[in-house]
Amino acid sequence: MRVYVLKRLIEIVPTVLMITLVVFVMMRSIPGDPVVALLGDAYTEEDAVRVRQEYGLDRPILVQYVIWLGKLVQGDWGSSILNGRPVLHDVIIRLPVTLELIALSMAVALAIAIPAGIIGAIRRNTWADYTATTIAMIGVSIPEFFLGVLLLLVLSIGLGGALPSSGWVYLPGTCPTIVCAAGLLGNAQHVLMPAIALGVGRAALLTRLLRASMLEVIRTEYVTTARAKGLGERPVVLKHALKNALIPTVTVMGLQVGFLIGGAIVVETLFAMPGLGTFGIDAIIARDYQQVQGFALLTAIAFVVINLIVDLTYTFLDPRIRYTG
Amino acid sequence: MSRPTSDREPRRPIVPRPPIRGGSTREADLPAQVTWGPATAAPSESPFMQGVRRLRKSVTALVGLGVVVLLLVVAMFADVLAPHSPTANDQMSTFQRPSWEHPLGTDQLGRDMLSRIIHGTRISLLVGVSSVLLALFVGVPFGMIAGYYGGRIDTMVMRVMDLILAFPIYLLAIILMVIFTPTAGLIGTMKVTGAIAIVRIPIYARLVRGSVLSIKEKEYVEACRALGVRDPSILFRHVLPNCLAPIIVTTTLGIATSIIVEATLSFLGLGTQPPTPSWGWDLKANVAFIQANAWLALFPGLAIFITVLGFNLFGDGLRDALDPRLK
Q: DSSP E strands: which ranges in A202-318?
């Protein structure tokens, strides 16, 4: 097991390198560069050449990439071309916001999907099942940003501003600057709507999946055996059936991470949250090479690590699955 | 490790049972399988017709199909149906509430919302359908070649596909759109189509490769080879028709996803640019005025939702009808 994890961790390196390299090349193939934006009205050809030299932008792309990698190994993520701030610092102060959003939206998704999926399967073809299936269908079809707008209309504007429509209050202890709003209640108020907006779509997908795999598992012989030996319905469903039915669900949850990162961009934009998503989209649109690299690096690592965690979760859900080095 | 499965039981046909094989495979026509088929099905009925028959029984699929057809009609006759020009500004009548003159009100430039939504159908459907078709036309041949020839070709093709899949899809789509630089009009729409298609190619390549891997081992493919049928003919006339069912289902559901991705890109300001009407863009532009003019953000969002729902319902129904095994 330990060997397997170590092997997988080593395998992360080439994947992350590939992703960052592709992003690196792609960003630099965009016509124009950030120097133009940096110099603005004061743009002259000589200045541009000088600045490009300063940032090493006049070198071949692959050389630039190797230089970036070399610095990265030493813990230097580079600095923003446009505002000069170190990328690592910016990324670290924004990471907790997005992590909180993603974790809570996953919690929302599971809190809806597990009961709904179980009810749909064990009360198959009843009104409870139809309700769950219909709501799941609606949830799959509604884009995060539209659900966010609906929530805004109902919970923020409809209730006379009960919940704040934008901005952020940090969790106590994660405050990035000396002066900033922090507090548990304020944080909860700010994160509630984005988490629901992002979570419901995932919940819908997981519900459908869980229902389908529960239906399959419930028909298997070991569930019949469990019932035959006199076990109550509750332990049969929750301990025997659910655990096995969760395996495909967990796989899809892992695949959802890619969507969650995208969804986070959209939801953070809608609710004006100071998270990684808004950081990433702003950096890409401004073509701030260094910031984009930092964003891509972190996203790639998160993506691969979460997939690893998903694989490891299998061993808990189904002890027959064992990883050997 | 492996538990004894029901495969060990002697296989014998039990009383008439519902069809377990759908229109997806020609196996249903093989003598060995006939005993398993439905007692009621006429032997001459093709798998395709069986699928159509099952589809017609599904209420949700028909509702979905109805929505899709309606949207197609709206998109086709947008010029006739729209009461106003979708792009004509009217500074005298901005932010009007819904009325007879403007059933869905007007936006901050005084443009008629209903007309914008009607015309927005075009962008949404055009991008949704054509990006999936484009992904299909590139992904399917690659998947077939990779699966059929295997070996180094397979490794090479699938490595590229895996690389695309390794990206969170929105990250890739966003960067591609920045590279293409979003513009208005047909060119702008084509750029969005291209970006979404690139992101979705690997899905079809993987799907087809998987099907081809199992189909190429079938006896009828072997028979073709023995008869000296050439590879392209085997691939397109014998292999492809047998992996069509999952492709069709994934395509329909894929259109729904593509429409969401298009709306999302537009919402982020990276879709087709104004003045071309686009639902995602309208939603984003109108969120700013949501406090006093809630309906403005509501209608474009509803349009996206209904369209996606329509394709999802239809796709779900198709899946149940064409390939019960995918359920």
A: none
